[in-house]
Amino acid sequence: MHAAFMNGQPANAEDMRALALVNYGHYSSMQVRNGAVQGIALHEKRLQTATHELFGSALDSCSLRDQMRLAVAQAPDCTLRATVFSRSFDFRNPAGSFPVEVLISLSPSVQPAARGLKVKSFEFQRPLPQIKHVGTFPLFHYRRQALGQGYDDALFVDAEGRISEGSVWNVGFWDGKQVVWPEAPALRGTSEQLLRAGLRQSGVEQVVRQVRLHELDGFKAAFTSNASGIQQIAGIDETGFAGEPELASILKKALESQAWSPL
Fold first, then answer.
1. pLDDT tens string 185-204
2. What is residue 9's three-state secondary structure?
3. Do 89 and 68 have their domain in common?
4. What is the model's pTM?
5. Range of the domain at 68
6. Residue 49 and residue 72: Cα distance in Å, rounded?
7. Of 107, 132, 151, which residue is a domain's last?
8. Smallest Cα–Cα separation from 165: which of 192, 200, 133?
9. What does 141-197 look like in DSSP terms, one character per residue?
10. Do 67 and 150 have their domain in common?
11. Whole-number Å distance between alpha carbons of 145 and 78
12. Which pLDDT tens digit goes with each residue over 234-258?
């Protein structure tokens, strides 16, 4: 199942060509179950904030919600990606404000794999890390490099040696008593925010602090989180994690405690 809608209408070849040629914009991806989304307000806030920063204009929230609702009418269980761009954006003169358009694309729903990931660290810092922009080339390039070296994915470390995030996911650690979120410039994902809220509500201790590669031996487990869900990390570089069933249960309950909102 694949479908695409531009501004609420079925997208055509010219629409897709325009988006590809502009190559400037931002997006948010989410899982839809029975026409509902977890953390929909977080996705909308992300899209609104990025629209203002990249285009100097406002995103019509009511229209966005209507477009998403229309898109999933015949596909209530799917992966939905909302991409915001502007056909009138001029890279020769990018100053000022530009009216935006929205591409809603649907693909099959996904679930995280049950097995733990082996990830390889790379020194890399995404530009404008607070924005989920369409500049994904380096993310997939480093994932490709990791796969070529026998790993499953890439983990990024900034110039100061701080762990920041994975290719398309946030990372968290477990020291046996609390969840540790690494403090460094990164995209704060909707799943991470939902997990933090769920952990607070259940009384699980968590802290945000700088984490460096040489400290990994001090953790009992690590995990990834994104819109697809939560996945355990089996190892980072040469450091392995045995994993703890208790942590998997804690994270699962924390995420499940967060409401699904109908589109």
1. 999 999 999 999 999 999 99
2. strand
3. yes
4. 0.94
5. 3-107
6. 24
7. 107
8. 192
9. HHHHHHHHTT-SEEEEE-TTSBEEEESSSEEEEE-SSSEEEE-SS----HHHHHHHH
10. no
11. 29
12. 999 999 998 788 899 999 999 999 9
